[in-house]
Design a protein that fits this description.
Distance between the termini: 34 Å
Shape: elongated
Radius of gyration: 24 Å
Helix content: 10-25%
Number of strands: 20
Structural class: alpha+beta
CATH superfamily of the largest domain: P-loop containing nucleotide triphosphate hydrolases
Strand order of the largest sheet: 6-7-8-3-9-10
CATH architecture of the largest domain: 3-Layer(aba) Sandwich
Order of helices and strands: EEEHEEEHHHEHEHEEHHEEEEEEEEEE
CATH class of the largest domain: Alpha Beta
Strand content: 35-45%
Number of domains: 2
Mean pLDDT: 91
Largest sheet: 6 strands, mixed
Low-confidence stretches: none
CATH topology of the largest domain: Rossmann fold
């Protein structure tokens, strides 16, 4: 049995459909990320799971029990919000202990649980600090400690790293994943940041316009996008119109290539996806030839724009080229991903 089962959720706000017949399941101890652009429905879905919104239709079960009629404070779910929602007039200890005190738990037990939670987020030495004395990353950890001290089955995280600078955000990505492993509970994480999703997730749910477009592991989502939207949204992609001649044989740019895809109709129009890092540039003529139009240094690689006729290709390479260079594009059969022309 799955930990969470979501069936046919719909939600409208006036004339806007926030969720359209959304169904999927979440397993125990899974780090699952709801990924998509602003307005795609991911935060609405998270708020429904947390009990802060009510769907127009559908059902959600937790451990086989319908929770839609269970108030937020009675669900075995806790939420970490983007802006942390910490109490500025409390110190760290009292912020973390707040929920336990509201439950009128024994003070000795509260102290034990809060100390344990602070140790998990490496803030045991900060229990008497005021909130204004903390850095952004420390505040984020306090918010997480306040959520996990209640020992929920599920932790909901609504873009909790959005307010942090790049370096701290990257550090916290690894800390969150390690914390999830140590806690052994399910994390449901909302973000529009593809790198965050790829770095931390066991499973990614890609959403757009209230619908789920694809569910899979980070490797599957990146290497096997099912739609043009997913291919564009998860990293950079070169998407080229083509024709699937037969299984394992595709034509694009007036050339025929061997590929690893099958199951299409003969001579079916398709879209071909090739990631920028899978293309090698050579100065000798090949099957696909073009001219370097621009080059930008990105730190770990050069981003090179090559025009083949009026078609723009993006290539990531550790080897620079000069604007105006005539080059040929080379890639392996495994680099060619064929998807339905949608």
């Amino acid at each position: 049995m799955h930990l969470i089962d979501i069936q046919h959720l719909t939600k409208d706000f006036d004339d806007t459909r926030a969720l359209g017949d959304v169904s999927f399941y979440i397993d125990e101890n899974e780090f699952i990320t709801l990924l998509g652009p602003s307005g795609c429905g991911k935060t609405t879905l998270l708020r429904i799971l947390g009990g802060f919104e009510t769907p127009d239709a559908g059902a959600i079960s937790l451990n086989g029990k319908n929770i839609l009629n269970v108030p937020a404070y009675e669900r075995e779910v806790n939420t970490v919000f983007q802006h942390y929602a910490l109490f500025p007039h409390f110190n760290v200890f009292d912020n973390v202990a707040f929920g336990l005190k509201m439950k009128k738990m024994d003070p000795i037990k509260i102290h034990e649980k809060v100390e344990k939670a602070l140790k998990m987020v490496r803030l045991e030495a900060y229990s008497s600090r005021r909130i204004h004395q903390l850095s952004g990353g420390q505040k984020q950890r306090v918010a997480i400690a306040r959520a996990i001290v209640n020992e929920p089955k599920v932790l909901l995280l609504d873009e909790p790293l959005a307010a942090l600078d790049l370096k701290l955000r990257q550090d916290m990505q690894y800390e969150l994943k390690e914390l999830q492993r140590n806690l052994g509970i399910t994390f449901i994480y909302v973000t529009h940041d593809q790198e965050e999703a790829l770095t931390m997730s066991d499973t990614i749910v890609v959403m757009n316009e209230g619908n789920i477009l694809q569910i899979g592991t980070p490797v599957d989502i990146y290497n096997e996008p099912k739609t043009k939207f997913v291919a564009h949204f998860i990293g950079e992609s070169n998407i080229i119109p083509g024709i699937m001649n037969n299984d394992y044989l595709v034509t694009f740019e007036n050339q025929t290539f061997t590929c690893v895809d099958a199951g299409f109709e003969k001579n079916q129009p398709v879209s071909v996806v090739i990631r920028p890092e899978d293309i090698t540039l050579k100065k000798t003529k090949g099957l696909i030839n073009g001219v370097v139009d621009a080059i930008t240094f990105k730190g770990v690689h050069y981003e090179i724009i090559v025009y083949v006729g009026d078609k723009e290709y993006v290539i990531h390479s550790i080897y620079p080229k000069d604007v105006g260079d005539k080059v040929s594009l080379h890639f392996d059969a495994e680099a060619i991903h064929v998807m339905h022309d949608v």
